[in-house]
Design goal:
alpha/beta; about 55% helix; 19 helices; 7-stranded mixed β-sheet; 3-stranded parallel β-sheet
Amino acid sequence: GLYSISGDPTEGALIVSALKCGFDEHELHTAFPRLDILPFESDRQYMATLNTDTQNAQNIIYLKGSIEKSLDICDYEMSGLDIVDIDKQKILLQAEEYAARGLRVLAIAKKVSHGDKISDRELDNGFIFLGMQAMMDPPRPEAIEAVKECKSAGINIIMITGDHALTAFSIAKMMSIADKQSEYEESVLKGKELLSLSDSQLIERVASVKVFARVEPEQKLRIVDALQARGEIVAMTGDGVNDAPALKQADIGIAMGMGGTEVAKEAADMVLSDDNFSSIAHAVKEGRTVFDNLVKFITWTLPTNLGEGLVILVAILLGLTLPILPVQILWINMSTAILLGLMLVFEPEEHNIMQRIPRDPKEPILTKVIITQMLVVGFYMLIASYAMFEYAIVTGHTIEYARTVAVNIFVFIELFYLFSCKELEKSVFKTSIANNKFLLLGVVLMSLIQITFTHASFMNAMFKSEALDLATWIEVLAIGAGVLFVVEIKRFIDSKISDKKYR
C-alpha cells in the first residue's frame, strides 16, 4: 500500500504531482498510448513523447524542458480552453519569480503531429504552451555542511548546472557556495554568455564565478581548462556521457556510482558510490589524515636512522670502538619500527585538519622544518649515545654494559620522540596522548621487550647485552625524555623565525 520512486527524481516528482491532482495513470496510458520518445539531451534541454489521442484520433507531441528552450518553439498558449497567441514575457517573468525562490521550473507544451515518429522539423515551432511545473529540489543538509567544511579547508566550490540561473543562484546561496551578500551578476555566468568569451577572458572571469547555469556539456571542459590555466587543482564531478571529457581533463575526475553512466565511470579517477557530496568532504579529510600520518612517520623515522648511521660513521672515521653492534642496530630497527613507528598510522585526524589551506603540490614532503628537526634529533642521539657509552666505560663497566646503555638510549629517545611527532606544529605538552590507544599500547610493549632485552639472560647471550642498574635506568629515561625539550626549543625558534617572516 506504499508508493516508492525508482529512477529519475524529477520524473518521479512529476508523476506524484499528477497523482495528487487526481490523474489515473492506467487510464492515461490507455487513452494516450505512446508511439515514440525523444530522450532528454543537455544541449536540447527538453524531452518529447509522441502519443495517440484515441478519443480525437490524432497524434500529439508532448514536450517538457527548460523555459527558455521550450518558449523558443512555442507560438501559442492555453487561456482556459482557448488557444491564443503566446505572451512570452509574462511567462518568463513568472518563471523567474519561481526560480528566485529556488524552485526548478519546467515548461510543458504540445503540438499536433501528422506522423507516427517524432521528426526534427516538427520541433522547430508551432507548439502550444500549456503551463509550468515548479518544484523544490532542496540540497541535503549533510551536503550543506560538507560545502561549509570544504570552504573552511580552502576548497573553492563551483556549481555547474543546466538549471535556470536564478534557481541555481538561490540554491548556491542556500548551500553557502555563494555568499549571502554575493552579487548575481558577478557570481553567475550563463552558457550563452560563456560562448561569447574568449579563452583568455574566461580564464580571468572564472575566478569570481560561483555558478555556471544553462551550461552545455562541452562547455564543462572549457571551464575545467580555464581553472587549470589559473594554476588550480580541479576535482570535477559528473554522471553523463557528455561529462567524460571534463572528467578526463580534471586533475581528479569523480563519477557518480549510482546514477552515473559507464562512460563517465571509465573516464573518472574515482567513483562516488553513494552520489553524496558529503562523501567528497570525508575523502578530503581522510586523505589529509593519511598524508599527515605519512609525514609524521617520515619525521620520526629519518632522525632515528640518521642517528644510528652517524654513530657508525663517527666510529669508523675516528677509529673508535663501536658503541652499538650491527646486530643491536638490527634489533633497534626491527622492534621500534613495528611497535613505535607503525602506530603513527593509527593517529586520528588533527582538530584543525579541515581549517588548513590546501598544501602546494610542488612543495616537497621533506620541508626545511622537517629536515632541520631531523638533523637536530639525529645529532642529539649521536651525542647522547656516545656520551653515555663513554661514561659507562670510564665508571668501570664492561663494554657489553656500555653498549646496552647506548642501545637503550636510542630506543628511549625514539620512544619519547614519538610523542613529539603526534602533531608536528603543536607543542607536545599541549597534545593529547590518549587519543591513539595503539600508540600507547606500542609504547608499553616496547618498554617491556626492552626490559627483556636488557635483563633476560637468553637475550643477553643473543645480543651481547647486559643488565643495567637502577641508577643507569634513571639516566637513560631522563636522556630519552630530554628529546622532548630539544624539539620544543627547536619549534619555539621556528615559530619566532616564522613570526618575523610574516610580520
